[in-house]
Amino acid sequence: MENSIIQRIKSYISPELIDNLGFTTNEPEANINKGFDIAIPAILASLFQKDKNALSGLFTSVKSIFTDENTDFATKISSMPSVLSELFDGHKSEVVNSISTAAGIGHGSAETVLNTSALGVFDYLKGIAPDFDLGTIKEFIGTNFSSVSSLLPAGLAIPGITGWTDTHKIDVDPANNVPPPPVTPPVPPTPVETHHYASNEEARRQDKKEGSSILKILIPLLLGIVLIFILYRSCNEHFISTSDTTDRTDTVTTSPASTPLSENTTPATREKLKVELPGGVTLDAYKGGIEDRLVAFLKTDYKGKSEEELKNVWFDFDNLNFETGKAVVTADSKVQLDNIVAILKAFPDAKIKIGGYTDKTGNESYNLKLSTDRAMTVKKYIADAGLGSQVTGAEGYGSEFATRDASASEEERALDRRISVSPR
């Protein structure tokens, strides 16, 4: 399921981090990947099975972890064990054992995979429901529940996941109609070592040797944790730096690939002009900019166009900038947003849809989320001005309509990164 929710969450965690966990845990990369393919649906399925009261308490803890955007990876990941213990009703170790057996990785590696998966899942859900709204999350997981639960391997026992239909892959004893007991990896007997110390000096040498053995285990483990932190941080910064960093400059001036209309052609030179609105209000804008073109269009008999025709008419913001990698509008951009608000007030019968777009670089899941967040930011700005009823929707398209290759120059790729409005 290449485009499944599991793949999207794994991309959100970052493929580089997942691949490199094989190195830090000394496990085959394929087995680590398999561990994530089991851990992520197990977490989602368990969330879906929880009742509202249990979820409320769980997400109170999760929300406190994600409230501060400056909270670093190490702090977040250190909070996951307690959250997972609550999620699995105190049976986290059984889930870890099951993942360890099914994926063919050690217990410690399975626990690392489960904790990292949990962080990715909650980070992903935060993008869908910024305030961790339980209704939105339950609906989202419910829509994908069949595909999610079917990804759990046969015989995998996850405490708390009950009421599955025949489509799920849990093996059932046909005679008793009972699922098999949890699969727990066999624990080899611990050899009993008898030490005969001839002297205190020999005992000290033995203690030193045993201490050295513990350090050999602890040092790689600590290095692994540090490496995971560095990888997670650098991978996410890489997504931010390569996905959509342009809205810092005045380059959002062309039309979407699907809307090659003459209304959306912005001249190369920037000539200032006054845009006159009904009622005598004038706006400071640029010739060929969004205000100029949108007002001209709204003064036509556009209501005579069919809904299908209007879907292909888009006007691009040409002075709307965001903070790099964020959906936060810069202070200078509010002038153009205020102009759009003034236009909608002057044309109370007009409605618009807002679209967000990115170029083809970076991670597509991240691009889709960023373009959606930015479109929603513009929608909220207009709604806060009291004109929410004139916005029919806001949607992010990621790089779906990008026309420039990822290897194109910065100037060319900048043309694919934009926020647009479509009159309705």
UniProtKB/TrEMBL annotation:
Q: Which residues form the OmpA-like domain?
A: 309-424
- Basic and acidic residues bias locations: 410-424
Q: Which residues form the signal peptide?
A: none
**Coiled coil stretches, renumbered:** none
Q: Which organism is it from?
A: Paenimyroides ceti
Pfam families annotated for this entry? DUF937, OmpA
Cited InterPro entries: Bact_OuterMem_StrucFunc (IPR050330), DUF937 (IPR009282), OMP_bac (IPR006664), OmpA-like (IPR006665), OmpA-like_sf (IPR036737)
Q: Where is this region: Disordered?
A: 173-194, 244-267, 401-424
Query: What compartments host this protein?
Result: Cell outer membrane
Q: Which domain of life is it from?
A: Bacteria
Residue spans with biased composition (Pro residues)?
177-191
Report if keyword Membrane is assigned. yes
PANTHER family xrefs: LIPOPROTEIN YIAD-RELATED, STATOR ELEMENT OF FLAGELLAR MOTOR COMPLEX
Compositionally biased, Polar residues: which spans?
Answer: 256-267
UniProt name for this protein: OmpA family protein
Q: Kindly list the residue ranges recorded as spanning the membrane.
A: 214-232
Keywords of the record, alphabetical order, are:
Cell outer membrane, Membrane, Transmembrane, Transmembrane helix
